[in-house]
Design a protein that fits this description.
Chain lengths: 507, 118
């Protein structure tokens, strides 16, 4: 109840000025500032005063209803209490139906008027509060919608975990890549672990309330591995206690891949520059002999110098070609090729080098050789590389008197196999495991560490495989199996993804 | 007539041949080792007046050989010239008489050798 109403304006509408003055007097005692008017001035007065309340005395029912209708239409926010002749209950109800806030009988009792005005004001206050609440609710709803949208659409994985480390909320991206996970534990979902990860950032945030950061490798439900940068932040309840922790994981796999690529490029440049410097020095050595031979008219020295120059130019050429291959992805130029003449071509490339160093070169072709679909340039480069390695291994081997490199081709129904065997020093397991890795070379400054990496790469690009079997002291066998029909395979493969016969056998 | 003796340590036989050629043509005797691991034995057997040393070799790399050499009273005074393809070779063996990056200038190398052992 309002005991004193301060500065509340009210308009009193009546055709009886005396009655109006009495009402104004009564209302002024409650603190109302009254403005009196008759029916004719009612709309104008209400328009000027803009009260929240009006009291309207009814003398003529029709005129009264007409005025009420117009006032309601012009100023719907004004609460209008009508005063009807005593006993005119039905008339009062009619006015209520037409939009009056209340009706009282004339002559009006002070108490009834005050109660009615108080109720009208309470109604207005509630209406105002309701309006504010509606507005707030609208803002809240749109904020929630925005938050939900941000939570779902942000391009990273967000999960909220409780003290039991169970996921209580997760965003759309998280659910998309890791499945429905509510109630599950983070380490089960992300890493398929049975125990929490060591130095769990969520655990740390629960402990100290700080933001923590880690880098993790996680596996999606599709089996794809991703490198993610994880940040955790505390979520506090109204008492300020940490009741949940938010974990935000950003996929940085591409950045890491780029970094790896740049690192390997750095290694590559280092490796190449060291090798090339050695070759250029040896080229100087060949030129020195050549010039000395020319000066002294020594044909033997000239020939020897020229051979050295040729050898170094060929090594530099190979290094540059390998470098060019590595620095740019190239598309395969697949052609239908006759296996026999292809094999002869490869053999002819390597045989002179073997013969020159007293290594017997043995060529054997078996089965229906027919034709196959390959890029002859890259496959022959790969096979020549393996064959030259075999010859080099024999030249380096001081453990035997006679060395043989054999080059076999077996034509199968769907595949063609190239078998390269040598009785050189063989390789230990560690060398076998690393030999297809980028920049691994057992030849010191003579190798770039690219040759076998590229050989492995091109064979995989052709949908083929390389198997290796080697025994230290006895020799090595490479088996390159290529399908007759070309199938498009994954582009580059990392070193070490080959199949080593020796390793398979061991375990 | 052969004068002072130079030990060439390098794993690349083509570079060894080149160094042998230019040293012998300049009147020096030569001996060789293909790796740091074998080189100390060659030093003891041949007693060279100067050593040219490659840094990166498959079995044992140059600086480790140099450490062994400098700890051996008999050999620690033999001057060493580094000839390597590594760009930072100046810092690998700081007590070296000189450091050359491959491919090196023949005349410069011979000049340093002449100044060192005559």
């Amino acid at each position: 109840m309002h005991d004193i109403v301060i500065s509340e304006s009210i308009v009193i509408i009546t055709q009886d000025p005396e009655h109006g003055r009495v009402l104004a007097h009564i209302l002024s005692e409650y603190g109302y500032q009254s403005s009196n008017c008759d029916y004719d001035d009612a709309l104008v007065t209400v328009g000027v005063v803009r009260p929240r309340l009006a009291v309207m005395g009814i003398c003529d029912c029709r005129l009264g209803q007409e005025l009420l209708r117009r006032l309601r239409a012009g100023y719907p926010e004004v609460r209008i209490i009508v005063l009807v002749p005593e006993g005119e209950y039905e008339l009062g109800l009619d006015f209520l139906a037409d939009g009056a806030a209340d009706f009282l009988y004339k002559p009006v009792s002070e108490r009834a008027l005050r109660v009615s005005l108080d109720r009208a004001l309470t109604f207005l206050d509630l209406q105002q509060e309701n309006g504010i609440l509606k507005e707030k609710s609208k803002i809240l709803e749109s904020s929630q919608q925005l938050c939900r949208q941000l939570f779902d659409e942000v391009p990273c994985y967000i999960s909220v975990q409780n003290k039991d480390r169970r996921i209580v909320r997760a965003n759309r991206q998280f659910k998309l890549d890791f499945g429905s996970c509510l109630g599950e534990r983070c380490y089960e979902i992300y890493k398929h672990r049975t125990h929490p990860c060591p130095q769990c950032p969520v655990e740390e945030t629960f402990r100290d309330g700080m933001v923590h950061q880690t880098e993790e490798v996680v596996t999606t439900r599709g089996g794809q591995q991703k490198i993610v940068l994880t940040l955790t932040a505390p979520l506090r309840d109204e008492k300020g206690e940490i009741h949940e922790v938010m974990e935000l994981a950003t996929d940085i796999s591409q950045i890491r891949e780029l970094q790896d690529r740049l690192t390997s490029l750095g290694l590559f440049i280092g490796s190449i520059s060291h090798g090339v410097r050695g070759m250029l020095t040896a080229l100087d050595g060949g030129l020195y002999r050549l010039e000395k031979g020319i000066k002294s008219q020594d044909l033997e020295l000239v020939t020897n110098g020229a051979e050295r120059v040729k050898l170094m130019i060929s090594r530099i050429r190979n290094s540059v070609l390998e470098m060019l291959y590595y620095s740019k992805d190239r598309d395969l130029n697949i052609q239908l090729i006759d296996v026999q003449s292809f094999g002869d071509g490869v053999a002819n490339f390597v045989e002179p080098k073997a013969t020159k160093h007293d290594v017997r070169f043995q060529k054997e072709f078996h089965g229906q050789l027919g034709r196959f679909e390959i890029d002859p340039e890259v496959i022959s480069a790969g096979l020549v590389n393996i064959l030259e390695n075999a010859v080099d291994a024999c030249i380096e081997d001081e453990g035997k008197d006679r060395h043989i490199v054999s080059f076999l081709i077996e034509g199968g129904k769907d595949n063609v196999s190239f078998i390269i065997r040598d009785n050189g020093p063989g390789m230990d397991r560690s060398t076998q495991e690393k030999m297809f890795s980028l920049f691994f070379s057992s030849k010191g400054s003579k190798g770039t560490g690219l040759g076998l990496y590229i050989a492995n790469d091109v064979v995989h690009q052709h949908g083929g495989q390389i198997h290796v079997d080697s025994t230290p002291g006895e020799g090595t066998e490479f088996r390159v199996v290529l399908p007759r029909k070309h199938v498009r395979a994954e582009n580059r493969v990392n070193g070490g993804q080959n199949e080593s016969g020796k390793s398979d056998g061991d375990g | 007539m052969m004068g002072k003796k130079i030990l060439i340590i390098d794993d690349d036989p083509n570079i060894v041949t080149y160094l042998e050629d230019i040293f012998q043509d300049a009147g020096y005797a030569t001996c060789k080792a293909s790796d740091g691991a074998d080189a100390l034995a060659v030093v003891k057997a041949e007693k060279p007046d100067l050593i040219t040393l490659d840094l990166e070799m498959p079995k044992e790399w140059g600086p480790r050989f140099y450490r062994e050499l400098s700890q051996d009273d008999e050999c620690s005074n033999i001057p060493v010239i580094v000839i390597s393809g590594l760009s930072g070779n100046k810092y690998a063996i700081q007590k070296a008489v000189a450091s050359f990056t491959k491919p090196f200038d023949r005349e410069d190398l011979l000049k340093v050798i002449k100044e060192t052992i005559g």
